[in-house]
Amino acid sequence: DAMVIQNPRYQVTQFGKPVTLSCSQTLNHNVMYWYQQKSSQAPKLLFHYYDKDFNNEADTPDNFQSRRPNTSFCFLDIRSPGLGDTAMYLCATSRGAGPTYNEQFFGPGTRLTVL
Amino acid sequence: EDKVVQSPLSLVVHEGDTVTLNCSYEVTNFRSLLWYKQEKKAPTFLFMLTSSGIEKKSGRLSSILDKKELSSILNITATQTGDSAIYLCAVERGGSNYKLTFGKGTLLTVNP
After folding, report:
1. Quick check: helix, strand or coil at residue A3?
2. Which of B88, B98, B103 has its CB closest to that of A102?
3. With pLDDT > 70 as the criterion, what percentage of chain A qualifies?
4. What is the mean pLDDT of residues A52-58?
């Protein structure tokens, strides 16, 4: 089945210790997104790629970086995690073209805890 | 800044009840509104509403877009315990480069 896969599902890291979250998709979608969702809050877009074009949200901290080495994979790097970065991190994809171009398909999420 | 407000924030009903969830928005150059269902994991897509498709229905779920009132409702009839979830509303602004702005969601609990 075509899908969006995130690894790991759960990650515990120490304050200041770099962490990388992974997302892969078999949908062959052009657009990939990273969202941060804290408890009882709306998903907050961090950045997205249209193909290799990177689009950073203005209020995304510099501590958060992303890489998309190919169509299928996208990574979220948190260089120096703080306690406030504890959250669910959601990866999503969309076609980016056609009538349903912006219907976003989400992965299961990575729940990150920073101690 | 785009804004999406959902109400109520939480709702508890009994199986068989009908519920209506609300979403209002302020967005420049509105393009589409999407509803998602989020259980204990990632959101799953329910409906997309646009100017050319202001009403959608799938089984017991239906949604209507009111562009004049800048709002949408999501109706669930004959609720089941499996409908318990957070329901998220999101809007897309034209020219937003494929981005969505999400509301905080409505937590629906359906008791047996």
Report:
1. coil
2. B98
3. 95
4. 89
Q: How confident is the model at residue B52 (pLDDT cuts 50, 70, 90)?
A: confident
Interface touch A96/B98, C-beta < 8 Å? yes
* Chain B residues with CB within 8 Å of chain A CB: 4, 31-32, 34, 36, 41-45, 48, 88, 92, 97-105
Alpha carbon separation from A60 to A5, A45, B85 (Å, rounded): 23, 8, 28
Task: Flag if B98 and A48 touch (Cβ within 8 Å).
Answer: yes
Per-residue tokens: B90:
């999101």
The amino acid occupying position A65 is Q
Q: Are strands A44-50 and A105-106 parallel, antiparallel or unpaired?
A: unpaired
pLDDT bracket for residue B40 (50, 70, 90)? confident
